[in-house]
Every structure is written in C-alpha cells, then in structure tokens.
Specification:
mainly alpha; 13 helices; 68% helix; globular; transmembrane helix; NADH dehydrogenase activity; cell membrane
C-alpha cells in the first residue's frame, strides 16, 4: 500500500483547522457585533441566554439549523441552492496562504496573495446567482448592486496591494511579514498610509459591510440578494460574510501591520490581536455611520479611491525605481 503524501496530510489538517476556526469565529463575531451595537446605541445587547448573553450566538445557530428549507415558486432550484454553497466554500481556500505565525501557515506559496485575490472574486458570483435564481425583484436588484459594487471596489483594493508588492518584491505574505518589524514605525502602514486607508475602505465595500451594505439594504430591498433564503441557506451567506471579514483583516495585518511580529515574543497571538482590532473597527463603523446612497458609493470609488490608488502606485514605482 502506497503511503499518503505528507503534503496532502498537511493540507487536510489545515482545511479542518480552518473550518473550525471559521465556525468558532462566526460565533464570536456575532456576539461582538451585538454587544458593540448595544454599546453604541446605549442598550445592553443580548444578556438573557447564558452569562452576559454568551450563549446567544449558539442559540441562534441552533435556530438556523432547525429552520425549514424551501425553494420559492418560480425559482431556479439549481442556481438557488448553488449560491450559498459557492459563497462559503472558497473561503476555506482563502485562509491557506495567510501566515498566522512563523510556522502557522496552511500552505506556503509564492503567489499566495494572487490566490486570495482570485478566489475572493467568486463571492460576487454567488451573490449574483442568489439574486437571479430567487426569481425575486428585490433579489435581482441586490445582485445587480453586488456586481457593480464588487467590480468597482476590487480595483483600488488591488492597486493598494500592488503598492506593497512593489516595495517588497514578493506576493508571498510570509515574505511581506518578514520584511517588516515588530514596532509600529517599522510597519508598511507607516510607509504606505494612503495604501492602507484605501485598502481598508475598499475592503468594507468588498465585504458589503455598512455603510456600504447596499446589496442587502433592508430599508430598500427587504434583504436584497438573500431575501428568499431561510435556515442554513441564509446561515451560509451570514457565515461567509464574517469569514471574508476575517480574510481581509488578516491580509491587512500581514501586508501593513507586521503580521505575527510584535515588540516582544513574536507569535500568532500578535496576528490575532491585530486582526481583531481591525474587525472591531469594521463593526464600530457599521453601527456609527449611516448607509450611503448607491450613487455616493460609486462616486467614492471612481472619483476618490481610484485616482488616489493610481497616484500612490505611480509614486511607489517611481521611488522604488530610483
């Protein structure tokens, strides 16, 4: 009997660990989201189920699992159920090249950043299929918004990432992290502050987070692309959104904030601290700023982020050439 390749075993273990990490973080982020919302709006948030409401996310998960799944009349059944699966499954691949620590990387690859950017684009296809396959006018409007928003905000996000890649000469996230230091003044965010700001704002647009949550604007489109979904159909979209938030914050921590390196005792804890600080900022922004109009959303990108990202990239290329 031939032996199983070691790399295949490592890959399977990494995927299982990533799936557990995504599920656990989904519960943690739901709790954080509600508690931050309660704090911002001067109310307690969940506190009945478990001590200080700690078991509320678990109760929500059980409720979603137990809900009946149904296909709306007139919907395309194949597209309708393919959409939530397509939204969630690529997320597991996005975590593979992310270096959580000096040796805590799912799969070391030279083009890891390119893999993340390529597979992250599948999410918008899932949203498009969800809206189109639902045979619902609000779903189709949400899908159209998702496509326009994703196509627009991918460009400045890519340009801001390229600026850092030009500096480090690599698309390997581990190499980018090792090129920085543990102290804040050694981070790429200090050398490339404009790229960091553009990346973070574009990440909000890419993950459909408020104030850029136009594809699912409740006050306008009921729930947008996932209006017709219940139970775990909705749950997979919900989990994929939080997983994508973790991905964009993890990439930001690696590219701009020194990754696992800290002032002392380098390790994965520094990486997770930086990621969760960025996640808290994303949650805080959601409950602080009102939703923008769709024309304002696109104007922010095409009139501000795009020109600034191009200018920053040209300046970076010029300085590196010198």
């Amino acid at each position: 009997m031939s032996q199983i390749p070691v790399e295949l075993v490592k890959l399977i273990i990494a995927l299982v660990a990533i799936a557990a990490f995504v599920g656990l973080n989904g519960l943690v982020l739901v709790y954080l989201e509600r508690k931050v919302a309660g704090f911002v709006q001067r109310r307690p948030g969940p506190y009945e189920v478990g001590p200080q409401g700690l078991l509320q996310p678990l109760a929500d998960a059980v409720k979603l699992i137990g809900k009946q799944l149904f296909t709306p009349s007139g919907a395309d059944k194949l597209l309708f159920w393919m959409a939530p699966i397509l939204s969630f499954l690529p997320v597991l691949l996005l975590f593979l090249p992310i270096p959580f620590g000096p040796v805590a990387t799912g799969m070391e690859m030279d083009l890891g950043l390119l893999l993340i950017l390529a597979f992250a684009g599948l999410n918008v296809l899932a949203l498009c299929l969800a809206g189109w396959g639902s045979n619902n006018k609000w779903g189709i409007l949400g899908a159209a918004r998702a496509v326009a928003q994703s196509v627009a905000y991918e460009i400045p996000l890519l340009l801001s990432v390229l600026a850092v890649a030009f500096m480090t000469g690599s698309l390997n996230l581990t190499t980018v992290v090792e090129g920085q230091g543990g102290w804040p003044w050694q981070w790429n965010a200090v050398v490339q502050p404009l790229a960091f700001i553009i990346y973070f704002v574009s990440a909000l647009g890419e993950t459909n987070r408020a104030p850029f949550d136009l594809p699912e604007a409740e006050s306008e489109l009921t729930a947008g692309f996932h209006t017709e979904y219940s139970g775990m159909g909705f749950g997979l979209f919900f989990l994929a959104e939080y997983a994508n938030m973790i991905v964009v914050c993890s990439v930001a921590a690696a590219l701009f904030l020194g990754g696992w390196q800290g002032p002392f005792f380098d390790g994965a804890w520094w990486f997770l601290v930086k990621v969760y600080i960025l996640l808290l900022v994303m949650i805080w922004l959601r409950w602080t700023y009102p939703r923008v109009r769709f024309d304002q959303l696109l104007n922010i990108n095409w009139k501000w982020l795009m020109p600034l990202a191009l200018l920053n990239l040209f300046i970076t290329a010029f300085v590196m050439k010198l």
